[in-house]
Write a structure and sequence with these properties.
Layout lengths: L1 E5 L3 H7 L3 H8 L4 E5 L13 E2 L9 E2 L1 H13 L6 E11 L2 H8 L3 E6 L7 H7 L2 E4 L9 H12 L34 E2 L2 E2 L9 H19 L11 H39 L16 H5 L4
Parallel strand pairs: 1-2, 1-6, 5-6, 5-7
Antiparallel strand pairs: 3-4, 8-9
Helix pairs in contact: 1-6, 4-6, 7-8
The structure holds S-adenosylmethionine (SAM).
S-adenosylmethionine binds next to strand 5.
C-alpha cells in the first residue's frame, strides 16, 4: 500500500510512523509513505501557502494553488489511482471498520489542513472524502493523518506478528465488542492476583471467560455497541452472570466504603475535629451557621 501525505510538515507524520508496527510495515515493504509540502509548490519570494479569509474573521485559509500542485505531484508519482482524503473535524468519524476498508485501498493521499482550513473549492474539486478522528479540533491534520496511517498499516497482512494479531482487538471479531482484560507475570502481585481460570490450561473455559469479560465491559463502558436482544442465548447468559457478579462486587465495595467512612468519622470524633461531634467546651465543630447565626 502507498500513502502520500500533503502537509506543511510532512516529516512530522513520517517520524511518528517510523516506529513500531508501522515502521516495521515499511521495512517489510508493505507500506510506502511519501510526503509533499505545498510550500515547495508555492510561488513568490515568500512562498505563501495561506491568505486571509474573504468576508473577514480570524485566522488564515490555505490557498488552492500550492495544495493543488502538491496533489498533482503526488498523483503523478505513481500510476495507481489514489483515493484523496481530507483530514477534517467535519468528516466521517474514523472507526475500526473504516480503517479495515481503507487497508484494502491500494493508494491513499491524505491532505492535512492547517489554520482555519482549506479553500472549499479545492476540497470540492479534489477530495473524495473527509475523515475525522474525533469531535475535537486539532491545530493541524498531521496528527490525524498519523492516526489513520497507524490504524490502517497495522491491518495490512503481514504487518503484525502472530502474537499481536488484530483479530482479538476491540471492535473486531464476533459482535465488535471491546477486548477482554489481559494479565502477565507475576501471578501474585501486591496489586492483585491473576484470575485463576487463565492459569487453568482449560482453553474452552479461558475462551468462555474472555468472551464474558468482553461482553461485560462492553455493556458497562460502551452499551451502544451491544444489542442485548440480538445476543445469542449463550452470550446473554454470560452477560447476565457477569452483571450479577459485578453488582455484587459493587455492593461489597460500597459496604467497604461505608465501613471506612464510619471508621474515619469515629476517628474524627475522637479527635474532636471537623466531621466529629465536638465536646461542648471544645469550641470546635461549628459550621458556618454556628459562627454567624447564633447571636440571639
Ligand atoms: N476551522 C476548522 C473547523 O472548525 O472545522 C478547523 C480547522 S483546524 C484548526 C486545522 C486543520 O486540522 C483542519 O484543516 C484539519 O485538517 C485538521 N483537523 C483538526 N481537527 C481534526 C479532527 N478532529 N480530525 C481530523 N482532522 C482535524
Amino acid at each position: 500500500m502507498r500513502i502520500d501525505l500533503i502537509s506543511l510538515f510532512p516529516d512530522f507524520v513520517a517520524q511518528i510512523a517510523g516506529h513500531g508496527v508501522v515502521g516495521r510495515a515499511q521495512e517489510r515493504g508493505l507500506l510506502a509513505l511519501a510526503g509533499w509540502n505545498p510550500r515547495d509548490y508555492a510561488e513568490g519570494n515568500y512562498r505563501r501557502v495561506d491568505d486571509r479569509p474573504f468576508g473577514g474573521g480570524p485566522g488564515m485559509v490555505m490557498l488552492i494553488d500550492p495544495l493543488r500542485a502538491a496533489l498533482q505531484a503526488a498523483r503523478a508519482a505513481d500510476p495507481q489511482p489514489a483515493r484523496v482524503i481530507y483530514m477534517s473535524p467535519q468528516g466521517t468519524p474514523l472507526t475500526q471498520a473504516k480503517a479495515r476498508a481503507l487497508a484494502d485501498v491500494p493508494r491513499l493521499i491524505l491532505l492535512c489542513g492547517r489554520y482555519e482550513g482549506v479553500d472549499e473549492r479545492l476540497l470540492r474539486a479534489e477530495v473524495d472524502e473527509e475523515l475525522s478522528i474525533g469531535d475535537y479540533v486539532l491545530s493541524g491534520g498531521e496528527l490525524a493523518a498519523a492516526v489513520v496511517v497507524d490504524a490502517v498499516a497495522r491491518l495490512l497482512p503481514g504487518a503484525l506478528n502472530d502474537a499481536e494479531s488484530a483479530a482479538q482487538d476491540s471492535f473486531e471479531g464476533d459482535g465488535g465488542l471491546l477486548d477482554c482484560p489481559h494479565y502477565t507475570r507475576p501471578v501474585s502481585h501486591p496489586l492483585g492476583e491473576v484470575p485463576p481460570v487463565l492459569l487453568s490450561g482449560n482453553h474452552a473455559e479461558i475462551a468462555k471467560w474472555r468472551r464474558q469479560q468482553s461482553l461485560g465491559r462492553t455493556w458497562l463502558r460502551r452499551p451502544e455497541l451491544i444489542d442485548r436482544e440480538a445476543l445469542s442465548k449463550a452470550d446473554r447468559r454470560l452477560l447476565e452472570a457477569f452483571l450479577a457478579e459485578h453488582a455484587q462486587a459493587e455492593q461489597t465495595l460500597a459496604g467497604q466504603a461505608l465501613a471506612q467512612a464510619a471508621v474515619s468519622a469515629d476517628a474524627a470524633q475522637d479527635r474532636g475535629g471537623p466531621g466529629g461531634r465536638a465536646s461542648p467546651d471544645s469550641g470546635q465543630g461549628h459550621g458556618p451557621q454556628g459562627e454567624s447565626g447564633h447571636e440571639a
